[in-house]
Amino acid sequence: MDWGWLLPEPVSAFGSEIDSIYYLILVITAVIFVLVEVALVVFLVKFRHKEGRRAEYSHGNTKLEAIWTVVPFILVMVIAWMSMDVWLEAKVADGHAPGDALPLRVAAKQFEWNVTYPGPDEKLDTADDFVKRNQLHVPVGRAVRIDLSSDDVIHSFFLPDFRVKQDAVPGMVIPVWFEPTTAGEYALGCAELCGLGHYRMRGSMTVHETAAFDSWVAEETSEPAVETPTPADTAGAELEAASASPSAPEDHDHSSRQPDSEGEEQA
Amino acid sequence: MSEAAAMSASRPMEGMRVYNLKLGMWVFLLSEVMFFSSLIGAYIILRFAHPEQWAEPNAVLNVPLTGFNTFMLICSSVTMVKAFAAIEHGDQAGLRKWLIATIILGASFVGIQVYEYIKLGHEGFVPAAAAYAAEGGPLYGSTFYTMTGFHGAHVTIGVLALIFTAIRAFQGKYSAEDYGGVEIMGLYWHFVDLVWIILFTIVYLI
Amino acid sequence: MSTMPVEVGHPSVQHWAEPGHADDRSFIRKYVFSTDHKVIGCQFLILSLTFLLVGGLLAMLIRWQLGWPGLAIPGGSILGEAKAPGGIILPEFYNSLVTMHGTFMIFFAIMPLLVGVFGNWLIPLHVGAADMAFPRLNMASFWTAVPAGLIMLASFFVTGGASSAGWTAYAPLSASPELSGVYMGQKLWCISLIVLGFSSLMGAVNYITTIVNMRAPGMKWMRLPLPIWALFITAILVLLAIPVLTGALILLLFDQTIGTSFFLPADGGQPLMWQHLFWYFGHPEVYILILPAMGITSEVLSNGARKPIFGYKFMVYALVSIAFLGWIVWGHHMFQSGMNPFLGATFMTSTMIIAVPSAIKVFNWLGTLWRGDIHFHTPMLNALAFVAMFVIGGLSGVFMASTPVDIYIHDTYFIVAHIHYVLFGGSLFAIFAGIYFWFPKFFGRMLNPTLGKIHFVLTFVFYNLVFFPMHNLGLNGMMRRLYDPNQYEFLAPHQPMNTFISVSALLLGTAQLIFMFNFLWSLRAGKKAPPNPWNANSLEWSLPSPPPHGNFPAMPTVYRGPYEYSVPGHHRDYWPQDEPPAEGGHRTAEREEVHA
Questions:
Q1: Does a structural domain hold residue B168?
Q2: Which residue of A186, B35, C67, C434 pairs with C243 in a disulfide if CB–CB is 3.0 to 4.6 A?
């Protein structure tokens, strides 16, 4: 990752379009920033107090006012206009996500993500569905459409590399979609303060090559034990979490590798 | 003629041509509009989201009784106007008489509302009445008590202010030259009445 | 509507500071339960500077944890087992730190500083009145703010600790003690802000009435100093926005206490409704936090440059437009909230438009400096910093206004950078400018200029070192309100930057000691202040420092606007508003000039 103003490489189809808007704004604001701050410094130097010189007695200039009203207005309207389509494409799944997108269900709760996969039949709410905790697995080059919900408070489903962020609101099911472009392992985080475990509500996103994804699905569905989500991780139950967390034998669950031990939170 | 000579040296700029107390009261009432709007706005949002939680008019609430209560409150605005008209003409006796009438009507309004609350409470209709779901859901009770409760609080404060005003009236503190205190009391009272008419409509009649 | 024949209570009946009239008020009446706007302004100053200190200390704790995660604070075990066992901050305490830092800074520091202090100090003097329209209501406004602050402080000490749901208190987290772990603390938070709301409302009614009704003869609307325009518009925003917050807080309190479900989905409540109500207040609130600062900046810049403010009328229109537009942009805080994306598109448009009047103001400030005769006194340095930093804060806002870009930067440190560039880089520098400028008038002594300049330079440098890198942290994906970003592999490499920021923050905090020392020392031992140390034009500078109770010996008369600097042919480079037009050889005595 970079220290400047460059964004990390986007790995979703609309990610680079979002980045284009960002860079457009960056260039415009950088130019204005330099012009204004330099002008400020130049004026301060040039017009600092000198004996014998008086300030110019002027109350303003209407023409200039008009210019620096209209030009900024046009600039921001251009930015807004260019942002509109990209926004709707990224946010409105209906009409933008392809019909054959892989359907997933993500239920956020304190402090984990429970992902329901449709299994080989690629239909949710059928017998071959399975649930993984804190792990997203998707195939590259194929759109994914997630029904996002929350079991308790507002969380926010954040995939930085995909330029995806959507608040998960209890009582609502909100569609989220994207199309991964590059295989790899990426971060999943929570971007809305959701309680004391907010800072460790992380998961992983793995984008597989298509064949690898299919075999992963097959592996998951052929196993005898289907993973169940852990019991509600409420503030009071934090103490209980220190003892056994049920997990399936071949659990790739990151929560077991969290650097902090549960014991730290026993206040 | 210089500007200095042309200007009266003893009076400030005209402003709104409304004396301070009155301008202040109008400004305050604007803030009250926003307050009640937030409560009514919440009600509208919730009702649109879950219309099934609202009982039919008169199924739970007593519309005829509250209708009479509304009439009383409107009458109290009339008596308030009469009190103000009295002192505008220096009629001290009239001022006192009509202030007392307003107090009695206002206090009765509060009394009947309290009676209604107690009765509803006994029937199980309390702010978070999930158990009352047959006749409406929790949101029905929450919004009902919040909106009418805060209005009732405003009426109560108004009655206390009226009593304070009446005491001053009996002390002869108002006159045809100085009736600001009565006028702003009237403004507040009419506002409270107006809010009730709106609330009565949306809470009881719709 | 009728008007009374003899209008008792009419603004013309004011209690002026008639010479020869002894001030026989008791100490309590003079300094404690005072109805004098100047004293109330000083009281608000003590209150808000105290809470600024509290907010700053909370920030230091936040930065300690972010700079050195899991490291014990020296002496930190004083915080207790429930918050920081062995001096190591717990996650739940961290969440309440970020919450209370924001809460104290916004509600108990910046807002009372800008609105309570400068509103009280400046309004009656600038309009030419003896005091506010309702002096006793003014006193009540201050004394209502005090318990509000105490309640907020008390919330740290109850079981479960202080609110930890963010200063934005999103439901259901804020409405559910079982889910947040905070019981009494969140309730006290709500109650405190409800009480504070009453204080603000009383102030707003007073300010509006005073400005409308009590302007001295000749003080036309377009001759008002810009701080008054700003405070007037701000008071209207307070009047209309605070009641909405009050309503929302009441509903939240009911959810927490009597089992209602306004925001709890289980029984049909709407979490998003909290956000709509909160931000409907919240967005006007941020303009409440910047508009008076803009007014102060205009005042100081014009004075420092010895030049009329460039485009006074447009500055007024810009203030009005910002305030007006501020009512239709609240949804930009909710782009990713689950709100209908099409609504998001409309909010984007209105949000983009609001950049325009802000831009106009920046260009007008530059125009004020153009061909000026610039004196770099301490207030001027701080006002210049406002302009420079507000530009950054404003430009960063454009990124967030763009909904698709906001997908990435929402709830990251990019937002934190923006907030602090406008609130600290903006408002706080303007507050410093205002304090350095008006301290002499209200305390009768000058603040030490050398210490002032050192304070300025150190603050400016460290402040930028703290907050500028936060833009980059956010662009690298660092989320807000994270107790330990190292949990995320992609954020762990940024720990060194977080540590750097924390070191700078500690230095920034330490630099404020210079200001504190200067302030306290100058109260007692500062150079005695003449009536007009800055050769300024508004009405307060015609009076002694400090002005007497009742301000003016009689109702003043105003002859010109407040920015008549460097008028050609005039013997001085300033021309007080109440100085009669020079007819014949009448000249007032030269006023003592102090170049700070």
A1: yes
A2: B35
pLDDT recorded at residue A232: 43
Residue span(s) of chain A under CATH 2.60.40.420 come to: 102-229
Residue pLDDT, tens place only, A89-137: 999 999 899 999 999 999 999 999 999 999 999 999 999 999 999 999 9
The residue of B11, B29, B35 whose CB has the most chain C CBs within 10 angstroms, and thus the best one to mutate to test that interface, is B35
Distance from C-alpha of A182 to C-alpha of B98, rounded to nearest angstrom? 82
- DSSP for B9-47, please give it: SSS---TTSS-HHHHHHHHHHHHHHHHHHHHHHHHHHHH
Asked if residue B2 is part of any domain, the answer here is no
pTM here is: 0.93
**Domain region containing B85:** 17-205
Instruction: Report the residue of chain A nearest C374, measured CA to CA.
Output: A48
C308 touches chain A (CB under 8 A): yes
CATH of A102-229, one of 3.40.50.1980, 2.60.40.420, 3.40.309.10, 3.40.640.10: 2.60.40.420
CA distances from B196 to B201, C77, C248, C266 (A): 8, 55, 20, 31
Give yes or no for residue A239 having a pLDDT over 70.
no
The pLDDT tens digits for B91-144 are 999 999 999 999 999 999 999 999 999 999 888 888 876 655 556 788 999 999
Residue A119 Ramachandran class (φ > 0 left, ψ -120 to 50 alpha, else beta): left
What is the ipTM metric for this complex?
0.94
Residue B130 is predicted with a pLDDT of: 60
Q: A267 pLDDT band (50/70/90 cuts)?
A: very low
Mutation test of the interface with chain C: which of B8, B19, B174, B190, choosing the one with the most C Cβ atoms within 10 A? Answer: B19
- Domain C40-542 is found in CATH 1.20.210.10: yes
Quote the pLDDT of residue A248: 34
Contacts of C385 in chain A (CB under 8 A): none
Encoded amino acid at A220, one letter? E
Q: Is A3 on the interface with C (CB under 8 A)?
A: yes
Q: Which residues numbered 70-89 in A keep a CB inside 8 Å of some CB on C?
A: 72-73, 76-77, 79-80, 83-84, 86-88
C355 and chain A in contact, CB less than 8 A: yes
Q: Which residues of C touch A32 (CB under 8 A)?
A: 391, 395
What is the C-alpha to C-alpha distance for residues A6 and C400, in angstroms, rounded to an integer?
16
Contact A118/A104 with Cβ under 8 angstroms? yes
C-alpha count within 13 angstroms, C-beta hemisphere, residue C241: 26
Mutate to test the interface with B, among C14, C123, C125, C205 (most CBs of B within 10 A): C205
Rounded CA separation C249/C194 (Å): 7
- The answer to whether residue A261 scores a pLDDT higher than 70 is no
Q: Residue C254: its chain B contacts at CB < 8 A?
A: 127, 142, 146
Q: Determine whether the interchain pair C405/A158 forms a contact, defined as Cβ–Cβ distance below 8 Å.
A: no
* Shortest Cα–Cα distance, C540 to chain B (Å): 17
Distance from CA of C302 to the nearest CA of A (A): 11
User: The CATH number of the domain where B78 resides is what?
Assistant: 1.20.120.80
- Decide if B21 touches C, using CB distance below 8 A: yes
Percentage of residues of chain B with pLDDT beyond 90: 76
In a domain, B12, yes or no: no
The pLDDT tens digits of the residues spanning C152-211 come to: 999 999 999 999 999 999 999 999 999 999 999 999 999 999 999 999 999 999 999 999
Cα separation, B185 vs B191, whole angstroms: 10
Residue B84 lies in a domain: yes
Q: Does the pLDDT of residue A242 top 50, yes or no?
A: no
- Cβ pair C214:B12 closer than 8 A: yes
pLDDT band at C21 (very low <50, low <70, confident <90, very high): confident
In the DSSP assignment, the letter for residue C78 is G
d(CA C345, CA C340): 9
